[in-house]
Specification:
Se-dep_Mo_hydrolase_YqeB, nine-stranded mixed β-sheet, Rossmann fold, 2 domains, 282 residues, alpha/beta, globular, OB fold (Dihydrolipoamide Acetyltransferase, E2P), single chain
Length: 282
C-alpha cells in the first residue's frame, strides 16, 4: 500500500446523504477521495450530507470533516490533513486535472448527467440511468429490498418507481413536496424553537412555509430531513422527509442503512475492477 499522498484520486460526483455514505466508506478505507457538487445542492438530510460544505465552507458527518475548496489543486492539502475536499464542479472538469483512477456518479438523478467511461479507468454509477458495460463499468443497485447494494456488471439497475421505500408501513406519505414555489421558510413550534431536523412532529402540524404557503406534516414521526432555509424551491420539489419511527431521533445526523449498503457495493465494484485491470487504488 503506497503513501496516501501518492495514491490516485477517486472522484465522487454528488455529496448528498446517499453519496455521503460512499464518500465516508472510501475515506475510512484509505482511498484518496474528492467530492464534486453543484453550486446549490438541495439535500434534505442536511445533517448527514457532505454537500452542506458548499454553503457552510465545511461540515462534519460522523466525526469526519468535509471542506470546500475552490480549485482542484487545493484538494491534496485538504486530503493530507485527514479531511475530505469538496469542489463545486458539476461537469467533472477536475477529472482532466487530477486524472483519477475512478469516478463514481452518486448524484442519484435517476438519469446520467454526463458520466462516461472516458473519465477514468474505472467508472461506477449508482441507481437507474446507467448501463454497465456502456456508459459505466459497473452499476450499484439503490432500490430498497433484496438487491440493494448489489453490483451489476452488465445491464442497468431497477427502473425508478417514483414510490419511496417502505419504512414503518409508510411509503409516499413519508416524503413531502413543495405546495408552491418560493423561498423555504422555517417556522417555530409551540416552544418558539424553529422546526428543523430531529424534531418530533405530528400530522397536520405546520413544519415550514414555501412562498408563504404552509407545509403540513403528513404523518406523526421524526423530521429526518428538511431542505435548508432560504432555498429557492419550485413547486413539487421534495423538501422534507418524515420517519415514523420515533427512535430515529438519535440517527438524524448519521449515515443511513441504505447509504451504507450502497457504499458497500461501491467498494466492491472499485476493488474488483481494480484487481481485474491491475489498477492501483490504495
Amino acid at each position: 500500500m503506497q503513501n496516501k499522498a501518492n495514491r490516485p484520486w477517486v472522484l465522487i460526483r454528488g455529496a448528498g446523504d446517499l453519496a455521503t455514505g460512499t464518500i465516508l466508506r472510501l475515506h475510512r478505507c484509505g482511498f484518496r477521495v474528492l467530492a464534486l457538487e453543484c453550486a446549490d445542492p438541495s439535500a434534505i438530510r442536511r445533517k448527514a450530507a457532505f454537500c452542506e460544505a458548499v454553503c457552510q465552507g465545511s461540515t462534519t458527518v460522523e466525526g469526519v470533516v468535509c471542506r470546500r475548496i475552490e480549485k482542484a489543486d487545493e484538494a491534496a492539502a485538504v486530503s493530507a490533513a485527514g479531511e475530505i475536499p469538496l469542489l463545486v464542479d458539476e461537469r467533472c472538469a477536475a477529472a482532466n486535472i487530477l486524472h483519477p483512477a475512478a469516478v463514481v456518479d452518486a448524484i442519484l438523478a435517476k438519469r446520467n448527467l454526463g458520466t462516461n467511461r472516458a473519465m477514468a479507468p474505472i467508472t461506477v454509477g449508482l441507481g437507474p440511468g446507467f448501463t454497465a458495460g456502456q456508459d459505466v463499468d459497473a452499476v450499484v443497485e439503490t432500490m430498497r429490498g433484496h438487491k440493494l447494494g448489489r453490483v451489476i456488471r452488465q445491464g442497468a439497475a431497477i427502473p425508478n418507481t417514483g414510490v419511496p421505500g417502505n419504512i414503518g408501513g409508510y411509503t409516499a406519505e413519508r416524503v413531502i413536496h413543495a405546495p408552491a414555489s418560493g423561498p423555504m421558510e422555517f417556522v417555530p413550534d409551540e416552544t418558539g424553537a424553529l422546526v428543523d431536523i430531529g424534531a418530533v412532529v405530528h400530522k397536520g402540524q405546520c413544519i415550514g412555509r414555501v412562498g408563504g404557503v404552509a407545509v403540513p406534516a403528513t404523518l406523526d414521526g421524526v423530521l429526518r430531513g428538511i431542505i435548508r432555509q432560504g432555498y429557492p424551491v419550485t413547486k413539487g420539489l421534495k423538501i422534507a422527509d418524515i420517519d415514523p419511527r420515533l427512535e430515529q431521533v438519535a440517527n438524524c445526523d448519521t449515515v443511513s442503512d441504505k447509504a451504507r449498503a450502497i457504499a458497500g457495493g461501491v467498494l466492491e465494484a472499485l476493488l474488483s475492477l481494480a484487481e481485474e485491470r491491475d489498477i492501483p487504488l490504495l
